[in-house]
């Protein structure tokens, strides 16, 4: 599209390398907060950008990836002001409404172009991530190296080995399995686990050697099939650290697990697995979660439900689901912390399972609470283990009602946010990181969240982590205090859970975004003051030393004393930080 | 196989780590069976052995000890010396964690063979229960088992407790009176800045001078002659009225209808409050009342620019009874005595909170206050708050308005002065509203409602207040301690007259201490918790800058002046005034009127777009999600909701320790300048790494690094209706064959 080269640059409209302008149009943006705004819309192959003619009013900058649905509203003969136009439903908790002039099919070209660029997969085009020419210093694709991460955990060891994955297409290339299990054993186990997602190690406790093992449901079926190999395999896992009982956490509600037998799935029967305790965690399926978030949108966008806020919030069940996920993860972490190995699965082991294992690991392992560690955690538990981002988000696909779509990852990030809220000094990263991750979950600017499982193609795109690591400072929580070897148990009670207002209601200008937040601001002021004091002290002491040095009559003891003190002081202060 | 429901709730005892050094423990393990009594405290009865039951997993079950009932408290004294006694970093000097001041008892339940009955004073059964459960006004819950005590002792202690904490009594029986007879009349140590008590002319003049108001001081009630004569005993000794109100106007309606000055805005307009005139039917009386009120409004209007707005609070805010009903439903949700109950109620938590309407009442009060602030700040209109009694909601609204407009009241002494001015001297009927004498009918937590509103402001603007959340919580607890003159009288007149009588009988001048003497309750170290480490005083630069900028004080908010300021001239008011006087009032407080709401929103939005000045106008966000639960006050005693090592307190602590560090550095610097010995002093660094404080610190205990998490024991089984979606599978595919693996998209 060479035409964009000829277009005049627009002040305020950012263009990424590889981004091209497609069309401009005079339009009215029906802002739900400030009313109808006249202005101009600019559509590129990456974003929709709206600039109001009134300079003081807001601009819109929306990556086309967030668009879930585009509808025409009103006809050529519709009455009423601004009734003819386009209605755009977004995946990120907002809707956009534009009004156009009624004569001459004025919206047709905009509709077609938006449709083409927002849903490129529906017209056999590439997502913007493949056109993006952004360059960053660090290659984010390198941030997660499974072998390196396992060696951080002390793996392989005498009980656990690393093996190449030849069994399951949706699993990472390297798997950690018990040394005692042969490749042939694994093959047999794979035959009994849904989609061959066999139980593999995800995390090991550095001291008690208890492990988190994840997998999919066993293929029990209506007839109640058993697999001696699977049973023996779980025994091997249990024995690895001498645990007397293995706890199997089935993320689903009991009834759903039973119902799964009808389609060939099921759960581990207590007769077959005698040394295992099975616990159902009652977390609902992807359809329930999708519906819950939809209801939440209804009460927060465009206006926040006022008169019955609390009961409306309750009726969405969103926080209740968050509570169940967190409560499940707490139980997983608690078991492992007290020395028992656990096995976690749901149906396929890529939605609820990923939520539970990653949250439990966040509670157990301080490394994942650092900025870099968190990115590794997402790469490891979500991307490498095949959370179906492409299907769950529906990138570039016009089929907005696809039943495969579900905000499972959003829910996970919300759980993480709840934890950061309850432990404000325990995480190295801040709320902004979580927001940026969610923004780019939809944007299609980076390749990170585009695929259903690890794919070679992704290296043709830019990783979100390249972008984030190019500006680490803005994702750092200044209050972070390193606290390793400490388990964090959030309280999974509705008394403490709260709606993530700054994310879900962020489009509402009434929600105050205090940047930086006042507490943070106060803290950095104090830090600056401290630096100032320290500098002054050092200066004073240096000059003091200088005086003594020039003055030969000064006793030598005094001299050493005063020259040693600045460093003393500095170290003293650093350690108590 | 078992599911979540049967798994949770198992508690193992975590190891307890004290807040102080372990060496200190157990040294003073003196076996003392008597509580440390206060001066004037007398034991009525006691029983032993009594078991104190607890569901805190720290203490595992129950503790053996003696239960006392004195003229001040119900006290449980443990046989074994508990570690906790030694380790509390924040403790009250007047009563311990196993003491319940009699006035702090909210409800008592009797345990009659597994059946729980509410004990009321009228229904005094001869049969004493096996155990009693005491719900306290500060939200603590105690369970005592009387099974092991001798029949006679158990009966006696039960009857004693019921008699002294539930039965109606006379003012003279309040412990403060015995207490003050037995303490030396402590010389009032007044530091600077001091809390203005408003019991003399000097304080009033100072306040008027500070706000640059121009009202007329009335001294005719100096000896409470008016209060005695006109049956309106709410009037303070000294007060200000608009210059155009005459002394004789006071007598017309027993002091009702007379605008009493509260505060002056820097523009010159002022805030007044008054009690509404009695309801009348007859036309001639009505006419007279109308004329009288018109004259009063006229006088208020005359104060500044002839603009006045009458705000009738009885008409638009919940009634005193509504407040009481709402609060009694609300507090019930925090008085929890078993874990199962806790997790069951967790599922419907939000809707349960909502049905109590308590948060919505808080919101309405804040909303009303913002409305009044808007009149004063944006339109410079004089305000007259009108309320039936004139000393309940008008106190709430007038204090909130002043808190939002005047940063002086956001300092500790400023806030205390405000409470003195508007509540204590302002004539709020603490005695009946707090129900200290157990005559339930007039009970209503109006002052607590005010503190709730202040807490909302504090949590939204944590840097703007000199006092902390803990200060508000402790102040709310102090209401029901009945030792402070602040909260035990119905009016200033009652206070002065009953103290006079008491002093005469006693033969010397008696003085009941004020709650503001915090050293009575807390030592120096504990008092530090009352201050907000985030608060930053206005710097000297800012102060001097303002002085040079006069006459434009900092408090002024320059709002976009798109619309010319509307003036509510007196004539426009007559219509609403007529309505007001007609006798019938429609309670329309359930929903705020749309226009008022829209206007307040606009005002708030305009303010929000300006950079925030913590020493300027402060407005609350009134959106649904912004009005929150005062967690520290209400949840602090519930073990299940303690976040160990977490909560906002961790941020506050970081800031506090950094500030301390800075202070040390500053001293170091000074020393350096003075060429003193530059050795750095070795500050003892307490290794806190394994100790985890509760998010409700300083109220709850700490835990060591390893402990069991609270795991929800009740879940949605059947309760959460997810409809047909719940039955679907994540993926609509059959799993019969593993050769069907979904390919990766690319």
Detailed description of the structure:
The complex is a heterodimer of chains A (577) and B (746). Chain A has 18 helices and 14 strands. Chain A has 577 residues and is of the alpha+beta class. In chain A, a hairpin with a 4-residue loop joins strand 6 and strand 7. The longest helix of chain A has 33 residues, at 518-550. Chain A is globular. Chain A starts with a helix and ends with a helix. Mean pLDDT of chain A is 90; it is low at 1-5 and 552-577. By secondary structure, chain B is of the alpha+beta class. Chain B has 25 helices and 16 strands. In chain B, strands 4-3-2-1-8-7-5-6 form an 8-stranded antiparallel beta sheet. In chain B, strand 1 (43-54) and strand 2 form a beta hairpin. In chain B, helix 13 (358-378) crosses helix 14 (393-405) and helix 14 runs antiparallel to helix 15. The longest helix of chain B has 25 residues, at 649-673. Chain B is globular, with a radius of gyration of 29 Å. At the A-B interface, helix 6, strand 13, helix 7, helix 8 and helix 9 of A face helix 11, helix 12 and helix 25 of B. Chain A: This is Myotubularin. Chain A: It is found in: Cell membrane; Cell projection, Filopodium; Cell projection, Ruffle; Cytoplasm, Myofibril, Sarcomere. Chain A: Residues 140-504 form the Myotubularin phosphatase domain.
Task: Summarize the topology.
The complex is a heterodimer of chains A (577) and B (746).
Chain A: H1 3-6, E1 21-31, E2 35-44, E3 47-52, E4 60-63, E5 67-73, E6 85-90, E7 95-99, H2 108-118, H3 146-152, E8 160-164, E9 174-178, H4 183-192, E10 200-204, E11 211-215, H5 228-239, E12 246-250, H6 254-259, E13 276-280, H7 286-300, H8 309-316, H9 318-337, E14 342-345, H10 352-364, H11 371-384, H12 389-394, H13 408-422, H14 431-443, H15 464-469, H16 501-504, H17 518-550, H18 556-576
Parallel strand pairs in A: 11-14, 12-13, 12-14
Antiparallel strand pairs in A: 1-2, 1-7, 2-3, 3-4, 5-6, 6-7, 8-9, 10-11
Chain B: H1 4-7, E1 43-54, E2 61-70, E3 73-78, H2 83-87, E4 99-101, E5 105-112, E6 115-119, E7 131-136, E8 141-145, H3 151-166, H4 175-182, H5 201-211, E9 216-218, H6 225-229, E10 239-241, H7 249-252, E11 260-264, E12 270-275, H8 283-302, E13 308-312, H9 313-316, H10 320-332, H11 339-347, H12 349-356, H13 358-378, E14 382-387, H14 393-405, H15 412-424, H16 430-433, H17 446-460, H18 469-478, H19 492-506, H20 524-527, H21 540-549, H22 570-581, H23 594-609, H24 631-635, H25 649-673, E15 691-692, E16 703-704
Helix pairs in contact in B: 8-22, 13-14, 13-17, 13-23, 14-15, 14-17
Subcellular location (chain A): Cell membrane; Cell projection, Filopodium; Cell projection, Ruffle; Cytoplasm, Myofibril, Sarcomere
Family (chain A): Belongs to the protein-tyrosine phosphatase family. Non-receptor class myotubularin subfamily.
Domain Myotubularin phosphatase (chain A): 140-504
